[in-house]
Write a structure and sequence with these properties.
The chain is mainly α and about 220 residues long. It has one domain. It is about 85% helix and about 0% strand. The chain is elongated.
Amino acid sequence: MGASVFGNGFARVAALALIAATAIVLRAVPVQAEPNPGADAFAPVEEYARKVEEFTKNAPALNKKLEDGSKTIDDLTDVSKARSEIEQLRGVVAELLGRVSDNGELGRLGAKALEHARTKLKSLEHDTRFKPEERQFLAQSWRELVGQTERAADDLDKARQEFSELLKVLQTREDFIDELMQIKRAAEATKVIRQLTGELRDASAKLKTLIGGIKPPGV
């Protein structure tokens, strides 16, 4: 009887040990989720919905680019605005010519400065307020300044005359300059057109993909 009890007790211990080991093994093995065929079935629909949302989100930005591009081309091809550029140039040239002409403000500037220096030199030669050596120093200083002013006024006059002649040449080429400015504006318009073409082609590629998804999966 003692052996039977011992045997039964050993069997119970062995069974408990087996159960414990099995529990440890089960805890160590990661539990795998059961496949959800329903979620996989809706994956294409969700992907298509994402593309629709993306297109809808980007559509206003594309529309703004097309609107801005159209306005830019309108401005660049506006004849009145193109003419205003040459008229602005004409006004600037006329104003500059008025200043650098022989009777203009700049034409009298050198003569005015030279007359002032000569007048000061002449008055100092007879000024009794200073000692002879002081008067001699001041007069010599003004005498040197008169010479420097003469050279500066001569350089200014030559530069003024050269600039004046160039402005007159520019006036005679206004029509040609006008054509060059119009070519530049037309080239800018062409560049904008190419940019808009690229934007539309990129949007078309995305739209083709979107339209291609309008069908049941597997069809």
